[in-house]
Amino acid sequence: MVRILLGVVLGIILVPLVVMGWLKFGHPPVAVTDSQLPFERQIVGVPMHARIDSEMVKTPPIQPDEATLVAGAQIYSEQCAACHGLKGKPASFAGHMFPRAPSLMEKHRNGNGVGVSNDPPGESYWKVANGIRLTGMPAYNKILSETQMWQVTLLLANADKPMPPAALAFLTPAPPAAAPAPAAVAKKK
After folding, report:
1. Which of 26, 59, 126, 143 would staple 22 via disulfide (CB 3.0–4.6 Å)?
2. In Å, how far are 25, 40, 101, 107 from 114, measured between CA atoms?
3. What interhelical angle do 121-130 and 40-55 show, nearest 10?
4. Digit-coded pLDDT (tens) for 66-94
């Protein structure tokens, strides 16, 4: 009985010391290019989804009408597109983040939905408002108003549906400016 008790006590002390030693002197994966820790997605994802499910608003307080979608598109282009991209133009550094920033304006590889359009709007709103630790996703609840966060959320929830032309103007990258003609450059000299 004493040996079992001694083994339990040593285990309680020794295991945390080994883990702390590995974290301090080992080479845990901390770079974006490192491989994931075993069960990393489950360790982070399970509590995150449990919290979102318990706190998310089930019914949006505004409707996804044209004005809402246009306002959401403007907010998206100003606040979100740098990481999540525009229609036909993914963010250049999104794939070099860990976890990778999802492209929210592109169809899924399986063709089912666009971005987070398959998620409940309340889930996306929670992520916009609260952010997600260690992902680069900031909390916008001190930056945007509640209405603005719902506008961008409803835009994302409806990204798989036809958009008003005014919204598309914000979501579609501008064509590159044409280079000046050689004659015009020569005259300036």
Report:
1. 26
2. 43, 26, 14, 4
3. 110
4. 999 999 999 999 999 999 999 999 999 89
